[in-house]
Amino acid sequence: ATQALLHQFHLDTPAQIVTNQPRVALDFARHHFPVVLKVPNALVTHKTDQQLVFTNLADESAFSDAIVALSQHLSQASIPESEQTFLVQEMIADATEFFLGAQRDGGADCYQPGRPGFGHMLLIGRGGIQTEVYQDHASILLPASREQLLAALHTTHVSRLLPGFRGRAPLAQAALENLMWQTQQLLLTHPDIVSLDFNPILVTTKRTVIVDAKIFVG
Fold first, then answer.
1. Which stretch of DSSP H or E encloses residue 195?
2. What confidence tens digit (pLDDT) does each residue in 11-38 have?
3. Nearest 5°: CA angle at 18, between 12 and 20?
4. Which among 111, 109, 118 has a CA at the least distance from the CA of 140?
5. Do 121 and 102 touch, CB atoms closer than 8 A?
6. Which of 99, 94, 120 is CA-nearest to residue 176?
7. What is the sign, positive or negative, of the torsion defined by CA atoms of 119, 153, 156, 213?
8. Is the dihedral of CA 63, 69, 73, 76 positive or negative?
9. Which of 38, 41, 64, 42 is nearest to 51 (CA)?
10. Alpha carbon of residue 54 to chain centroid
């Protein structure tokens, strides 16, 4: 459901599959090496902390070993094989990590005249597993213009990497700006969304890809 909603608003995600069958996972991987192997959000949170993410799997041998290791980790976490599912994604290389989050103040009717609440606060900044360490982010109350969203983005330190850094090619800044705009449209169209968390968002020279998305409704 989350993937379908993201695609409805033209938000880019990796090629991926969720399956409980290792053979199906391997068949998908064969067509997309190198890949990432992990478990879906619904099964386990904080996957990196629990060694439940295997990256840059480049061939069948490495992938098969990772499947066995992941299954063993899940079994140790009291998740039986009958309930184990695997998420396989294409590997997005040479990317800078961003995150985008939102939290709603008030109820689902907060955008209606006279109703309490300020609506959604959007956060943008440096992403990945060290998001909480660096605290490099900006916030902006929605709805906002494209210019206001762009101004918020450029108050972050990580945004300095977008034009290119020390001879590196510029990153897909326009795609990142569009992601912010489209996420705003998603939230305004679905005010019942209490919060969302896109982390990491991988920004390459050509794409801005939401690798992990959590959306909570209420």
1. strand 193-203
2. 999 999 999 999 999 999 999 999 999 9
3. 175
4. 118
5. yes
6. 99
7. positive
8. positive
9. 38
10. 16
**Packing angle, helices 146-153 and 173-189, rounded to 10:** 120
pLDDT over 90 percentage in the chain: 83
CA distance 121 to 216: 14
Q: What pLDDT does residue 195 have? A: 98
User: Quick one: which of 72, 76, 82, 66 has its CA closest to 26?
Assistant: 66
- Count of residues in the chain: 218
Which of 110, 100, 141, 144 minimizes the C-alpha distance to 12? 100
Burial 129-141 (b: 16+ CB within 10 A, else e): eebeeeebbbebe
Structural tokens at position 77: 């976490």
Compute CA 24 distance to the chain's CA centroid, rounded to the nearest angstrom: 24
Residue 62 amino acid letter: A
Which residue blocks in the chain are alpha helix, DSSP H? 2-8, 22-30, 60-76, 131-134, 146-153, 173-189
